[in-house]
Q: What sequence folds into this?
């Protein structure tokens, strides 16, 4: 079992729909990142969070540390939101201060007009 | 503009040849990283460098080599020993090495898609 699991792997939506992408992890973490990968391959960071909830525009990210689960929500989805969304956790393993990132396999989102 | 550049975007090589992927950043970041991305899998760490003249193996370093002679540059060589070199390679950097505590983030380059024929 992967340390970071995302669901669904593929998601198709109609413009305007509310979208949720889930991320579950099985290791102790110090932070969780949500990333967006454009069709050309470039990756940008959307959120970094260690507790609670963050909002940026139509994007909302939440994390529940006790349940080891995070969600990324997109409100009023638009075709330009079509991309791969990647969850990554920053480890907090003892013995090193290096917070290595472990990545989920990504969720491919397609929003149709 | 500050950022990370990787060149070329697409690279084709014959089996058995070594190939070097370029990564340059002008963000004045100390730490740099190389990741490999395969379809249906998460990014995997190949090598990382905390500072000039220092680098460490990641999770899948076999068949790869790196150098860090300059702060701005972290080239990755895919050697003939790498059994499945065809993949998408991403370079990243951060102000300092990502720590278990701290708020710094990684910035990613546009990637290089390597195809070995």
A:
């Amino acid at each position: 079992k992967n340390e970071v699991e995302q669901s669904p792997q593929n998601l198709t939506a109609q413009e305007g729909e509310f979208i949720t992408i889930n991320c579950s992890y099985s290791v102790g973490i110090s932070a969780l990142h949500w990333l967006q990968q454009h069709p050309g391959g470039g990756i940008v960071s959307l959120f970094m969070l260690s507790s609670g909830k963050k909002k940026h525009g139509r994007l909302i990210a939440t994390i529940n540390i006790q349940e080891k689960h995070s969600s990324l929500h997109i409100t009023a989805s638009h075709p330009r939101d079509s991309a791969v969304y990647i969850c990554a956790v920053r480890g907090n393993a003892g013995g090193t201060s290096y917070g290595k990132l472990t990545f989920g396999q990504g969720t491919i989102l397609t929003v149709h007009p | 503009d500050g950022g990370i550049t990787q060149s070329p975007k697409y690279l084709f090589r014959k089996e058995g040849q070594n190939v070097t992927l370029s990564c340059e950043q002008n963000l004045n970041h100390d730490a740099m990283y190389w990741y490999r991305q395969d379809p249906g899998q998460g990014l995997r760490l190949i090598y990382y460098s905390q500072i000039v003249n220092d680098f460490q193996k990641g999770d899948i370093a076999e068949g790869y080599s790196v150098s860090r002679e300059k702060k701005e540059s972290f080239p990755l060589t895919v050697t003939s020993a790498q059994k499945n070199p065809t993949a998408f390679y991403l370079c990243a950097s951060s102000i300092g090495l990502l720590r278990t505590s701290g708020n710094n983030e990684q910035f990613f380059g546009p990637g290089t898609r390597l195809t070995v024929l």
